[in-house]
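Example record for the data management plan.
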Amino acid sequence: MRAVFIGASALAVMTARLLLGRSHEVVIIEQDKETIDSLKEELDCGFLHADGSRPGVLREVHPRESDYLFCLTGNDKSNIIASLVGRSLGFGRVITKIDGPDFEHICMELGLEDVVIPARTIGRHLADMVEGRDPLEISAMIKGQARVFSFVARAEDARALSELGLPGASRVVCIYRENDFLLPKDDERLERGDEVVLITHEKHLAELAERWAAKRAAAT
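Corresponding structural encoding:
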């Protein structure tokens, strides 16, 4: 497996170190030359001194031969731009780190599905610890061919869930409306801006992504 990291943040270095320890190939793109020089002494991986959000730079690391692109700089906007560029160039999977939750909705509308908000993840874990809970990761519950898909409802999606025409083996499990959590019924009507989470068979992911990607393109 081959992973490319944009930004040599603490999170990037920690993840890269773990992947290298598991015999995976790693490339780190970093703008600060001194940071690269110091990391070369501890990480046996490829380094590129450049701005990872630029298309020409990302082409140099062979996108279609890379399984993951991790956009982990300290700047949310740079991470989002780099993610969009990386996706267009054909990286297998793009991971976007954002520190500001306000950008999460924008990422969803842009079709960036793998968004990481470290502060929220750690905060929830610590709060659960205080209350004596043992959190069970959703990845452990979603097994086999089941997958989770989410999208932001557009004006044309403002209809009852039963009228959405979702593919078989797909069901909406929850809706976030203005930060409120809803468990919908079949006759629940979507509103523009709703964040919709559904569970589906993996074979339907491409169809779902194409459907809502087409809506985003038509709206711009």
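Summary line stored alongside the record: The mean pLDDT is 87.
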